[in-house]
Design a protein that fits this description.
The structure is a homodimer. Chain A is α/β, with parallel strands linked by helices. Helix content of chain A is 39%, strand content 19%. Chain A has an 8-stranded mixed beta sheet with strand order 3-4-2-5-1-6-7-8, sandwiched between helices. The two termini of chain A are 14 Å apart. The complex binds adenosine-5'-triphosphate (2 copies) and magnesium ion (2 copies). One adenosine-5'-triphosphate sits at the interface of chains A and B.
């Protein structure tokens, strides 16, 4: 097991799901054994990878509620033996209220992931646009956190709060949370705001800002409509090059 | 009092804050008396309208916690007598847990808004990318819900859940929730996905889909960086025309 990476940011629409899918599928194309876990009740990564929710018997919630073992929730892909996936559905949104007064409430996902982590080199966890119990579970279950930051005006606003949340988790669990890096997404070379956000981010977080920048690229947003990632949907696009560059950068860390 | 409009969608980054600000400021330029309430702990509409959070003594949370009266939280603008604003800060994120076992927990915002609603023609409420207690409070406090839908692949996925939540609120409160309309945002004429999302949305919701479509327009995303809306930042842009068209369409309803 190399890394369990939680892709997190409470700001909505910054490219969390897009990064989970492109990074996860990409690493599997590099023949790394990968598991992707959708831990967002919206279930966008479940749909984005091409799974029809109405055909699902089980989701990650069935595992959390003790109905099935985590191994029984794993979906495999005929065309890609290196990639496994655990889907999420709307049922997951009820989980936080069900465990709000349980002292172990932030360890549920970690306790499940620990059972299977040695079967994989990389596990990626998608989380919702919130700092709620689902995101806390994702952070605690992970070895690393990757933070997508949209190259737009509101991007930097919530980062201080996210950093505080990571510190709180460290104090509560006694374990350090490693920030794998900040990934600038939807960068538009035509706008000065993109450059400003990148510069500002680098001023605050210096080396923690990944060298790879993901450009705004329409091929990236078209790909999930075909149940694919941009890597296979439009392999010669700027979007595909950027995510390949990201994979190479993360493999070195 | 004409309408209390909650702009809601649990999908992140679809243009909720952008619509609240452009609609709110726009209506005030049409000389309607408007109040905007930021009910998202991210506080993006507070920053987007040009308020520096570090200078704030009070937020909507100070009112919810009983520290001050709602009238004391209202910020006025010298240059625009038709617009008032109530800011939000990170402190708001603690509110849901503080009232989780209170039978009145979904009426807190409504009880506050009812105290001042006759001072305004329009009240707009920004909510977070979640179907949590903050969004439920926003829906209950409102007379109408406006739902921005990004013209992208994941856009339609969460709408069924949002509709179910509105039905639940109706059953719980015994009051009908009026859907003012679905607003297609970030429409990109170059991509087929935009057209598909618009067609699909119209197939499901027919007349409830607003005629006005907001195009993807870089001026819209630049404006908040100057504490302005696109209406004053780039009044001749496609983005400004679209939001003016929206205002005219809503004034007729
Ligand atoms: N680099 C990019 N270029 C163009 N479009 C992109 C890019 N990255 C993501 N998108 C599109 O932007 C939208 C938001 O991305 P995505 O859903 O991955 O964000 P998210 O952070 O997971 O959102 P949420 O907060 O709702 O979970 C999607 O429609 C996606 O296809
Ligand atoms: N029509 C548009 N064209 C271009 N950019 C837009 C448009 N509408 C919004 N944006 C930009 O897209 C980003 C997301 O918009 P916004 O923050 O308003 O969404 P939101 O739904 O409020 O997000 P959240 O779910 O985090 O609250 C912002 O950077 C905003 O400036
Ligand atoms: Mg997502
Ligand atoms: Mg917002």
């Amino acid at each position: 097991m190399k890394k369990i990476i939680n892709i997190a940011n409470q700001k909505g629409g910054v490219g969390k799901t897009t990064t989970v899918l492109n990074l996860g599928v990409g690493l599997s194309l590099w023949e790394k054994k990968v598991l992707i876990i959708d831990f967002d009740p919206q279930g966008n990564s479940t749909t984005g990878i091409g799974i029809l929710k109405k055909n699902l018997n089980h989701t990650i919630y069935s595992v959390l509620s003790g109905e099935i073992n985590i191994k029984d929730a794993i979906i495999k892909f005929e065309k890609n033996p290196y990639l496994d996936f655990i889907p999420a559905g709307e049922d997951l949104s009820g989980f936080p209220m069900e465990v709000y007064d349980d002292n172990n409430r932030i360890y549920y996902l970690k306790n499940l992931v620990d059972q299977i982590k040695n079967d994989y080199e990389y596990i990626l966890i998608d989380s919702p646009p919130s700092l709620n119990l689902l995101t806390l579970n994702s952070i605690v279950a992970a070895t690393d956190v990757l933070i997508p930051v949209q190259a737009e005006f509101y991007a930097l606003e919530g980062l201080a709060q996210l950093m505080m949340t990571l510190k709180k988790v460290e104090r509560y669990t006694g374990k350090k949370v490693n920030i794998l890096g900040f990934l600038v997404t939807m960068y538009d070379v035509r706008t000065s705001i993109s450059k400003q956000v990148h510069q500002e981010l680098t001023r605050y977080f210096e080396k923690k800002v990944l060298t790879t920048i993901i450009p705004r690229n329409v091929r990236i947003s078209e790909a999930p409509g075909y149940g694919e990632t941009v890597l296979t949907y439009a392999p010669a696009s700027k979007g595909a090059f950027a995510y390949k560059e990201l994979i190479a950068e993360l493999l070195e860390k």
